[in-house]
Amino acid sequence: MPPSRITEDQATDDRPPPDITDDMRASAKENPNSWLYVMDPAFEAGDNVPPWGVVGAYPVDANGEIEPNFQPNEQYLPSPQALNLPLPTNELERLMQLVHTKHEPTSVLPPAILTARLHVYSDPEEPAGAKSGDGPQLSGFRAKDGRVLVPACTAEDEVPVKWPGSRELSGKELIPLLGEHPLVLNPEGVVTAIVPVEHLIAADRGGSA
How many CA atoms lie within 13 A of 138 on its CB side? Predict the structure, then answer.
């Protein structure tokens, strides 16, 4: 049977149909009068693929030839691999990608942030007296919507080249330094996330925002 039909919202989907490979043609020859299902690249042959992992299907005619009218699956959610996202270098980056692709809820991020090592803005040329007596300070920037966001990076490679330097803190150490300002992860990265400080505080207390 064909996959779930395309929905009205998907009518504007500009993703091209999957390329037809030699392996797909060989499989079609062995299974005439059927549907050739295309799986997300996160799965391998023999895997138990959930509905969201099926990209869609090509009809196969009586001669085992693949017909061109590809039928998209309305339940398909592309994986990070399908979107060619960079390989994550740590658990927080992995979860950020899964949230970005709607495979995980945003609620998985605050607990992961608490235990992650994050790189925050630092100016090595800043005079020692420029910091208040209350301890280290964080730098923020004003977003287009008027909010002041505090940037932090999940890895040294994510630190913007225009930063003069960075220092490393845990997410838990950041909480008292944020004030009321949200944290923005990898502000110039391929995948970014904005997390309200209230969500971090709730996660630190063992609850949820």
Answer: 25
- Residues 66 and 34: their CA atoms lie apart, in Å, by 10
- Is the domain defined by 91-204 classed in CATH 3.40.50.360? no
What is the token pair recorded at 24?
A: 């797909």
Q: What is the dihedral of CA 77, 79, 85, 86, to 10 degrees?
A: 160
Q: How many residues does the chain have?
A: 209
Residue pLDDT, tens place only, 107-166: 999 999 999 999 999 877 665 444 434 556 788 898 888 899 999 999 999 999 999 999
List, as one string, the DSSP characters of 130-162: GS-TT------EE-TTS-EEEEEESSGGGS-TT
CB under 8 A, 24+ apart: contacts of 195-199: 195/106, 195/109, 195/110, 195/113, 199/107, 199/109, 199/110
Alpha carbon distances (Å) from 28 to 20, 39, 59: 11, 15, 9
Domain boundaries, the chain: 9-72, 91-204
